[in-house]
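Ticket #4471: structure export looks truncated?
Reporter: QA, pipeline team
Priority: medium

Steps to reproduce: submit the single chain below to the structure queue and open the exported record.
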Amino acid sequence: MTHEQLHTRASTSTRPAPAPAPPVSTISTPVALPVMRTTAGLGRDPGGGTVAGGPLDRLRRLPDDGAGPVIRRAGKKGGGTATKPPTDAQIAEGKKPQPGTAYTLAQARAQLLAFDHNQSGIPFRKQIAKAWGDYILATHASTLKAGKVRDTYKSSHDKHHADEFSVSQEIDGIPEIVIHAHMDKDGKPKPGNGVHWKWADGEMVAETYEMSATHVAALLEATTAKTAWDTTGKAKYLATLTLPTTGTPTTGSTTPVATTTTPPVASSSTATVSLPTVPAKTP
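Actual output as written to the record:
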């Protein structure tokens, strides 16, 4: 076969040309992409095997609560939700008496002592102390009773009448605190913040906690306080007001001392005024 014959046969071949590939947009069935699931997020596969971990490890599926499953992003590797440290207010709430929990008087007193007036740096300390004090007075009122009167005295709140006074009284069963009450002229507690408790070892500290009318009625001995004022307190107070007619204040004394002076007497004689001699000037 000659060279010309070979060329003619190749050019006149009847073999059909391959069909062109359809455009991508005409593909009707999408190609499934592999998805990695994590055991922490979605559990085991339908076949019973463990699903391998993968890029979804940072997602955690929560139980369906009726509104559909919820997926939250974990705060750290391995699952779990991100949490913030508790605030001082939240810590204080945890240190107060917890609802539904019963505390013995000894347990409550131990908690009250943990927040005394010497620990002023504890955040929300006064709120915690008040909560335990209120719990003791309300829950263990039947085991508490009025104690002895420590003192009766005049305070800045007792200046409207000569027989107004204040009283400091202990409480049997809880020696950590004492009652302070401002009494009217008839020996009855004044309304408002007239009755409050203070720390027994810090009565001079400006820290008080108001008591309810129920606790006042159960624990304040108003009649005993009035008797103590009439017999000793008033006399002690009046002694501080008795001023001597003559004398000189003693060094270190806190009691004011009155001094008497003789008023000047006018003289009828004419006073002679002596003038200094001024030397004559030399001409």
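Status: closed, not a bug. The export was complete when the record was re-opened. Leaving a note from the reviewer for reference: Residues 150-236 form one domain.
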